[in-house]
Amino acid sequence: MQKTKVLLLGLMLSCISLIGFGQRSKLAPTPPMGYMTWNFYADNITEHDVRSIADAMVANGLVQLGYNYIFIDDGWQGGRDNRNNIIPDPKKFPSGIKSLADYVHSKGIKLGIYSDAAPLTCAGYTASLHFEEQDAKTFASWGIDYLKYDYCGAPPDKETARKRYKKMADALTNSGRDIVFGICEWGGRQPWTWASSVGGNLWRIDGDIRDKWAAANDAPGTPKGGIGILDAAQRNADLAGYAHPGAWNDPDMLVVGLYGRKGPSGDLGGVGCNDIEYQSQMSLWCLQAAPLMITCDVTNMNAATKRILTNKEILAIDQDPLGKQAERKINKEGWQVYLKPLTDGAYALGILNTDSTTRKYKLSLEQIGLAGKYGTLNVWTGEVKKNQSRLSYEIKPHETIVLKLTK
Questions:
Q1: Which of 73, 74, 208, 320 is catalytic?
Q2: Hey, which bits of 125-278 come out as E strands?
Q3: How far apart are CA 330 and CA 368, in angstroms?
Q4: DSSP 120
Q5: CA angle at residue 34 from 261 to 134, to 5 degrees?
Q6: Closest by Cα among 225, 220, 215 to 186
Q7: Model confidence pTM above 0.90
Q8: CA nearest to 254, candidates 202, 287, 206, 209
Q9: Phi first, then psi: what are they for 393, rounded to 5°?
Q10: Residue 12 domain flag
């Protein structure tokens, strides 16, 4: 009898776990889009800053285009109260997070927050290890819609990571509120192989991105270790098979429009990029069905930055409901070619010139498995061509041509 009870209890817990996983997998049917505070504000983020970001995102049309999150990164915490409830810093967030969430929600924006699967966060603030259930319920009571869960101060092995992330995912599922779960352990434990199964909706595939094109471009004598746009895209190119609706590879934040700003993105050789490189990041992230997290000053964007971030055609490729990440079909001689199937039967095609010189590239669509002729729309220039089976483009250094191909 006792064995039967134990078996039944185990089956019940398994069913509950499967139900919870099924619920979680529906929370991010397309890659999340919004604003992440870390690169511009670091751990100095305040309530006033978040309200200003929300106002600007509405005023400059970002919310209407689908950028419907503000993700508060590290630095908001003020410790725990006498009941061990996590609390915000009273100087940075004098009105509290609930009031801030209400304001952000009134603008049509969801609110994300940050914690860590250890006693302290990366910047040394209060984190959530051993307080998962309590913190998840607190976040839910505040109206939080997304949790970025970091891994500073945690053990290096994969199994501990799986257990700690599952524990928080289960706590979020039981919190009484739908909260998207972003796993941020930087790719070292191959989260693309397990993060979805423990309740993650997206997972970082590599280290923190810096405001630069590539690590190989670092000037002699500059600090090494920070990855650039090309490095993150290259890593993600091998992971296309792991992405699907509700579960996304995350190559980290957009550095578009930062132009070498001092701060987190400016560390480890982050000297800034040109607008062609920033446009390439947007192109590659959208082809790869990546989360789109703006980090520049949205209250004061220049025309080039706004043009890159608000292109409706490229955003539609990222947000396509089929949820397919582009496959890299060609990778040789400084050329990369990506192909992404879309819901309407069309394809998005990306051609990247990784070289430092302008070059001409010719491609037969048969080379990438497409028979017949297609109409092409260049999503960045608006140029339309009919009946194309062979493509020929002159492509600038680090530029990515993106075409929508339609039968």
A1: 208
A2: 146-150, 180-183, 202-204, 248-250
A3: 8
A4: B
A5: 105
A6: 225
A7: yes
A8: 209
A9: -140, 140
A10: no
Cross-strand bridge partners of residue 292 = 33
Question: Between residues 3 and 241, which one has the greater pLDDT?
Answer: 241
% pLDDT > 70, the chain:
95
One domain, residues 194 and 176: yes
Predicted local confidence at residue 8, as pLDDT: 46
Domain harbouring 372, CATH code: 2.60.40.1180
In the set 43, 89, 150, 211, the catalytic residue is 150
Q: Would you say residue 128 lies in a domain?
A: yes
- Residue 233 class from Cβ within 10 Å (0-12 exposed, 13-18 middle, 19+ buried)? buried
Above 60 in pLDDT, residue 17? no
Amino acid at 357: T
* Structure token pair of residue 52: 């200003």
Residue 11 lies in a domain: no
Domain match, 179 and 76 both: yes
Name the band, by pLDDT with cuts 50, 70 and 90, for residue 2.
Answer: low
Strand order of the β-sheet with 202-204 is 248-250, 202-204, 180-183, 146-150, 110-116, 69-71, 33-36, 292-294
Flag whether 241 is in a domain.
yes
- Catalytic, 150? Answer yes
Which amino acid is located at 177 in the chain?
R
